[in-house]
């Protein structure tokens, strides 16, 4: 009788562990899908519904990203992009634009930048993500930086360019 109870308890524990692992995997898949969103549900007029195909380079005004936090762009829906790296320049076909000019004119969308970066942190606060780029790939940028995208459930949906070595995030 005692062996049957032990076997039953062990079976229940194994089932609970299995269900937990499945739920964690589903959540990770949802985060990855959310990150690769083609922005088809976005309704902000300053954002395009497709990802522009032009190649571009990104350059930071302050390469060490130790400036004070500065507002560099605001979407019509109130989301704001901040930078601790000074102004962000986008170079397309040998023409240099500020990030604001490139976003306003539809030359790029913010996902064009994050698609070229590595996801290094994902929070369970609604989908906040921190992306990192090491400036070794000169095809995109010679600068190293992080990009934090807040997606708090009932909070900030702002974004921030910050130092590769920073742990001082805006969303956390």
Care to describe what's here?
Helices cover 26% and strands 24% of the residues. It has 2 domains: 1-35; 57-162, no CATH class. Residues 32-49 have low confidence and may be disordered. The protein has 172 residues and is an alpha+beta fold. Strand 2 (70-74) and strand 3 (80-83) form a beta hairpin. The protein has helices spanning 2-35, 99-104, 110-114; strands spanning 57-60, 70-74, 80-83, 88-92, 95-98, 118-122, 129-133, 145-149, 159-162. It has 3 helices and 9 strands.
Outline of the structure:
The chain has helices spanning 2-35, 99-104, 110-114; strands spanning 57-60, 70-74, 80-83, 88-92, 95-98, 118-122, 129-133, 145-149, 159-162.
User: How big is the Rg?
Assistant: 21 Å
Question: Total strand count, please?
Answer: 9
Shape: elongated
The proportion of residues forming helix, as a percent range, comes to 25-40%
Observed structural traits:
single chain; 172 residues; alpha+beta; 2 domains; 26% helix; elongated
List the helices and strands and how they pair.
Elements: H1 2-35, E1 57-60, E2 70-74, E3 80-83, E4 88-92, E5 95-98, H2 99-104, H3 110-114, E6 118-122, E7 129-133, E8 145-149, E9 159-162
Parallel strand pairs: 3-9
Antiparallel strand pairs: 1-4, 2-3, 4-5, 6-7, 7-8, 8-9
